[in-house]
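INPUT
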Amino acid sequence: MAQIELSAIRKSFDGTDVLKGIDFRVEDGEFISLVGPSGCGKSTLLRIIAGLEPQNSGQVQIDGRPVDSIRPSARNLAMVFQSYALYPHLSTFDNIAVPLRMRRLSTIERLPLLGALLPSRRAKERHIRADVAGIAEQLDITPLLRRKPGQLSGGQRQRVAVGRAMVREPLAFLFDEPLSNLDAKLRVHMRAELAELHRRLKATFIYVTHDQAEAMTMSSRIAVMMGGELIQAGTPAEIYNDPGDIRVAEFIGSPKINVLPGRIRKDGGVDVLGTALKLSCSAAAGDCRVGVRPERIDLGAGPFSGSVVHLENLGAEAFVHLATEGAGLRLIARLADVRHVPAMASSVAFGFAPDAVRIFDPAGKRIEIRLEQAERIREPAHV
Amino acid sequence: MSDGSMTIGAAIAPASRATRRTLPAHGSRRAYSAYTLVTPAAALMLIMLLGPLAGVIALSFTDYQLGAPHFSWIGLSNYRDLFADKVFWTALRNTLAYVVIVVPGAVIAGLAIALLIQSGTSLRSLYRTIYFLPVMATLIAMAVVWEFMLHPQFGLVNGMLRSAGLPAFAWLQDRNTALYALCAIGIWQAVGFNMVLFLAGLVSIPKQLYEAAEIDGASSGWARFRLVTWPMLGPVTTFVVVISGIRSFQVFDTVHVLTKGGPSKSTEVLIHTMYTEGFEFFRSGYAAAITVVFLVFVLALTLIKSRLADRGVHYT
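OUTPUT
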């Protein structure tokens, strides 16, 4: 259990700034996901928290205590690596026992032959065996304890790596893209397992991923990182519905949010594709970008029209790719009812409710909007 | 080389049998072409490896002398003479002593230097080259340099000992130190080669294992070495030990240049005895018997290696 605080963390490799001043606080018992495209610095940040990488400036505090001068082994954090980093020459049992042996046994007790003769070691080994057995029980890997990592499947190795992290009850768990080596089906399964594990352990989890679906489904809070900066942090719903930056809006959500070119008029109204939206804002007149999530686009009625250029029917839902007439913009609309999928190349009218609209200035920052009160909102907000 | 060709032969034989079973009509023709394809490799192996080997073994049962017009089969007589010969036992003892000193010395020193170079930040390639120089240099030429260095009067080694106030030795002329001096040269010569092999092994250890070890609490260098480096180097170490073993069994050039087996047989080694018997006394049959004994030792080492090699590799 720990609360971790980062202040003004900077890091550069060979003159390239990887982290440009990160301030962030992870509360005790939180499951926080650091999410962002590859190269955004999220893994580096995790490694700085772990102590595997020194920061150029800034401070890491665990439970209010600065740990910058403390080496990784003394920080009492556990880490699950992308490659799992299991010791290939050790059995599952020994892999899980390593952190316990390193902490509970002295150097002499760890010696291969001599150590085994010491009575103190035998007593400690008994405790270690009991602890490992308990963890194996929890993770359902008891039958695998005698196997070597080479004889385990990806999902099993993943579990062993988690077991090795759990066994010594660390202050916090750090995960570095632990699911990215698994196949899609197993990934979905492990997602649920990890979330459940967090609920059971109530420990602090910091989880690095480039997969927004993992972040959305597991975490209590998401921190979105781009280009070495932390752009936005919040609950999954906040990040999804209320993105503060167009990069966040585009990164979170699959399929991607539709972005249309818009224009803010002098009176504060907003035009998109030559149609005025029923909302206004107080930003200066000029170009803007209008984002609408695919599930908020209503097909069949509305002021816009486009032709169907591609269809993706997933059975439970369908994605309709539209090209707007004239401007040639591509949009994706999600159709909940697959029985009414439009035909390919047909022309479809579409529209969206004013409260589905998120407006961003040319620099990508969010612009607050006011819905026009007189108008009837066609669809109640889902927010 | 022999390993490789044997594997090829073994792989082809069952395949051709299987073909015969499933395709009776074309079977014999298929097998025929398979054997035709194997012929060049098999012939080469026969001429280059198995032929000479069989020749040496056959020769060891004769009283053939180099250049003699005829010879006769004398059965195990050569071996009886050999095992009754004190020089042979001295040579065998010296060779084993040499192996027992040089192999651990060269392996541990090679590993230590590899670890130092790997953990260093700069000048890595310079150090690598320096330590590899003895491997590239001709050992005969280097032996002459060593002779100078170990010279009782004006040698560098004794000079250093004297300036430190220690007594000087006639290293190569004293029967108590000659073999150890040769061992030192042997280690010096083998270290570079072992170092390169260990360096290659060290580079291939995944970095994340060290990070995992650090996170798991292995804070001392020794703990990380025991947990990650040593086990992960297992296959390389096996290979290095066997290669060093075989190479030190073959020790000849330094002995021949520096001591000629003396003083009073204190540095007599197997290959040198073989050389003296075969090429100075022209007792080819007897020399062949020594060679066979030598081959038995090398074969034993190779067998141990192939046994250990499979066990040492950890597939991730």
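end of record. Chain B touches chain A through 24 residues (CB under 8 Å).
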